[in-house]
Amino acid sequence: QVQLVESGGGLVQAGGSLRLSCAASGLTFSRSRMGWFRQAPGKEREFVSAISRSGPSTVYADSVKDRFTISRDNAKNTVYLQMNSLKPEDTAVYYCAARQGSGAPTLPTLYDYWGQGTRVTVSS
User: Fold this and answer.
1) What is the Cα 84 distance to its own chain's centre?
2) Interacting residues of 62 by C-beta distance below 8 A, sequence separation 6+
3) Residue 44 DSSP symbol
4) H helices, E strands: number in the chain
């Protein structure tokens, strides 16, 4: 049974930082592309970032580029999202997702497994 468990969310002031973690089990993590998505109240789930199996290839949404950094530790079966210079518009539930296929797509429908999410609230 595949499990993705996010942690690290919370309340932070604008300009602050948070580091999200997603621990994976039940799948061959090193062969999985990993992504982060977020969903704000009343909005659709949107792509944040994705990383290739071994980590050299990453992609970011324009809204988070140069502020967020995705990374992974295949020895720990964990993917991270370092979020700096947070803005109130970053407030959302953040979800970790795993894809068994090739590529690091931005469409949530192309991911196979999802975590339950961790809430991030950025106050102004």
Assistant:
1) 14
2) none
3) -
4) 0, 11
Distance in angstroms (rounded) separating the CA atoms of residues 118 and 98: 16
Q: Are 35 and 104 within 8 A, CB to CB?
A: yes
Average pLDDT, the chain: 95
pLDDT for 92-119, tens place per residue? 999 999 999 777 788 999 999 999 999 9
In terms of Cα–Cα distance, which of 111, 120, 107 is closest to 4? Answer: 111
Least confident of 18-22, 34-38, 56-60: 56-60
Query: What are the two backbone dihedrals, phi and then psi, of residue 117, each rounded to the nearest 5 degrees?
Result: 100, 155
Q: Which residue is associated with the tokens 């997702």?
A: 97
The residues facing 36 across adjacent strands are 49, 96
CB–CB of 9/119 below 8 Å? yes
